[in-house]
Design goal:
C8orf32 fold; 16-stranded antiparallel beta sheet; 7-stranded antiparallel beta sheet; 26% helix; 22% strand; disordered N terminus; disordered C terminus; cell projection; cilium; MORN_DRC7
């Protein structure tokens, strides 16, 4: 049977090529599988479908019921009428043979199934599952549909198939999930048919387009007179524009040349390549607009997408429709109103009755119209119920990994728990089209005990940023670094709502440290600390300075406005010069003020001859308070303020040392976490717990 199928395909192909005056033979037609599938399919070279074991399959796979035989008879009669009405069109894809060599109507090959996984309740989850779970195989002949269409159970078992196999499985899942989905037999571009995405931008790199805000036009506007300009200056600007324009023209010409080089060569089979995809009509499941789904990628497309060049027919599990519309402009102008009998020819009438008038033999004896019941319901699917175990669903990739090549980017995907570090996805961005110079690498993780979710590595700046989910023991949200050694430059972001000090971000280097706060009761939002060199001259960047602490040179704090205090009493900025033993205060401004009030204390801890401390003198206090009241001009008030500042300075120095210790602790914890990576297993992950149970039983034995 397989030999007969191949000879029939070769004969059809030769006739099609001769009629189209194509000189190339079928052996010269290249339908290469893209590189992302080579990594998977290369492990099983030359997979032979004729060698599969079909002895265990149910009887419905090997025989046809009387309803199926009647349906095949109706399909043959429909095909005869179709070829008589449309002799120039290609034969319809109606009843290919299955894996047992038995002809089955395409609608009965669909098996609507709702699998017990929440991800498969939405179309995007179904599409991504099919595109990830199956390995793409090209059609034997790119311009003719296949002579066989296997059941989805067999396709799921071997995890490979052509575009028709992908489409039937995806459509079965979508119909089971409640969507108004249809299988489409049509024509598409070479990139779609061969799964070539090297000219497409990676979806993860596409930026969301911002919707421009349109300003409401006013009826009455005040005309603003233009400012007078010098004619000489305008002439100089015009000359500069001409020079810039010449440079831009050269750049545009170079860009055009590069674009021409990037464009793929013209496909000699453009418009003839057969492809199958899924059509989802609007209405059910609150789908607002009709769209296509490419089963190879799982991406949705608009029905006006230029990648889809025409439609021959569509079908679901209940009926079969032939497209009678002109596709010379692709699918742009197609109407998908299947109730329109002019645009879509249906195979099984939905009214279930055809009125036939009897011939009038005698004008005196008028006979009533006879109704002949032609009702015929589509037989149930001959395919067994689709089943995907928890382990198979979680490990969706046939070889544990999938690689997709995009334009200047490479996307790699792994099943959970395949990698010991929890890596499930990696995006590599390149600077050139040949993908040789790496610019940036982004990695995504799952099931990490340290809650690591994503990692961005910039290969040009050597900066690495780790992003964490809520739940890290140190409340980390993000960490940017070049090395996990201290004093080498670190930016740490925290989940500030879970911290007692409301710290949002800390930026630390060898010479300074800046902390950012949110929502504090004292209105503090920035604390900046400057460090000096160590006394012993050991500025040990990259080592753990547990003993030799960096001397604090300056502490600067910034505060938001406290509306409950007057502006001349509400400090906006205060600077503690530790080495100079001075303090500078700057107050907030009122709405009508222009100059802020300031107070500065210099050398506030001097001693006299008797050993008594002198806190306040004319030489140690400088103030400028143009808007302050008499209270602030009182020396006693300044004396008390100085006492409070001395106490707060001691507390601040202690807090700075605690911040330094926290930075060291975070780095030590992160080193330990990266050295001993642990993955968590959810209590709902039945497949992984089953593997753990088997491993425990094996170790006991």
């Amino acid at each position: 049977m397989e030999v007969l199928e191949e000879t029939e395909e070769v004969e059809q192909t030769a006739e099609d090529l001769n009629s189209l005056n194509i000189s190339d033979s079928l052996q010269d037609v290249e339908t290469e599988v893209p590189e992302e599938d080579d990594s998977v399919s290369s492990d099983v070279p030359g997979f032979d479908w004729s060698s599969i074991d079909s002895s265990h399959l149910p009887s419905s796979y090997k025989t046809n019921s009387w309803q199926e035989k009647k349906l095949l008879h109706i399909a043959d009669h429909f095909l005869q009428q179709y070829t008589h009405v449309c002799p120039d069109r290609k034969p319809l894809f109606l009843h290919p043979v299955n894996e047992c060599g038995v002809e089955k109507f395409v609608s009965t090959t669909l098996r609507p199934t709702l699998l017990p996984y929440t991800e498969l309740y939405h179309w995007s989850g179904c599409a991504s599952f099919v595109s990830n779970y199956l390995t793409m195989e090209p059609l034997k002949c790119p311009i003719t549909p296949p002579s066989s269409l296997y059941s989805s159970t067999t396709i799921l078992k071997y995890q490979r198939g052509n575009c028709f196999d992908f489409t039937v499985l995806l459509c079965s899942l979508l119909i089971g999930a409640g969507y108004d989905a249809y299988c489409v037999h049509g024509y598409a571009t070479q990139e779609i048919c061969t799964l070539d995405q090297t000219q497409d931008l990676c979806p993860l790199l596409r930026k969301t387009q911002e919707v421009p805000v349109t300003k409401k036009s006013r009826k009455y506007r005040v005309k603003i007179l233009a400012e007078p300009q010098s004619k000489f200056e305008l002439q100089q600007k015009a000359k500069k524009k001409e020079e810039v324009g010449d440079v831009q023209k050269k750049e545009e010409e170079e860009e055009v040349v590069t674009e021409v080089q990037e464009k793929p060569k013209r496909d000699p089979l453009h418009g003839l390549r057969v492809h199958a995809w899924v059509l989802v009509l609007s209405g059910k499941r609150k789908v607002p607009e009709t769209f296509f789904i490419n089963p190879f990628t799982g991406n949705s497309h608009n029905t006006t997408d230029e990648c889809f060049l025409g439609i021959e027919s569509i079908w679901n599990h209940r009926n079969y429709w032939v497209n009678m519309q002109d596709c010379r402009k692709g699918c742009k102008d197609l109407s998908f109103d299947l109730s329109d009998a002019i645009r879509w020819e249906i195979m099984l009438p939905e009214n279930n009755k055809l009125l036939t008038e009897s011939s009038e033999r005698d004008t005196d004896d008028m006979k009533e119209n006879e109704e002949r019941d032609m009702s015929f319901e589509m037989p149930l699917s001959w395919v067994a119920r689709l089943n995907v175990s928890c382990r198979e669903f979680e490990n969706q990739y046939s070889q544990g990994k999938k690689m997709i090549l995009y334009k200047q980017a490479k996307l790699e995907k792994w099943a959970p728990y395949v990698n010991g570090d929890g890596l499930v996805e990696r995006l590599t961005v390149y600077a050139d089209l040949d993908c040789t110079e790496v610019v940036e690498v982004t990695e995504w993780f799952k099931n990490r005990e340290d809650m690591l979710d994503m990692r961005e590595m910039n290969k040009q700046t050597q900066l690495t940023t780790d992003y964490f989910k809520p739940g890290h023991p140190l409340l980390l949200k993000a960490h940017t670094y070049t090395s996990l050694e201290p004093e080498t430059g670190h930016t740490m972001e925290f989940y500030h709502k879970a911290r007692a000090d409301d710290l949002r971000k800390r930026v630390e280097s060898a010479t300074e440290m800046t902390e950012y706060f949110v929502g504090r009761d004292d209105f503090l939002h920035i604390r900046h600390v400057e460090f000096g060199e160590r006394e012993n001259g050991m500025d040990t960047a990259g080592t753990r300075p547990d003993v030799h602490l960096r001397p604090i040179v300056q502490i600067k704090e910034c505060f938001h406005r406290n509306p409950e205090k007057p502006a001349d009493e509400d400090v906006e900025e205060r600077i503690f010069m530790i080495e100079d033993d001075s303090v500078q205060l700057t107050y907030h401004l009122e709405d009508h003020d222009t100059i802020a009030s300031k107070v500065a204390f210099f050398r506030a801890t001097q001693r006299d001859r008797k050993g008594e401390e002198i806190f306040l003198t004319r030489d140690t206090c400088v103030k400028y308070q143009p808007w302050s009241s008499e209270k602030h001009k009182n020396v006693l008030h300044l004396y008390k303020l100085l006492w409070e500042l001395r106490k707060e300075q001691k507390e601040l120095k202690h807090q700075v040392r605690e911040s330094e210790a926290e930075v060291l602790n975070v780095l030590k914890v992160r080193e330990d976490e990266e050295a001993n990576i642990k993955l968590t297993v959810s209590m709902y992950n039945a497949a992984k717990r089953e593997c753990q149970h088997e491993a425990m039983v094996g170790s006991r034995q």
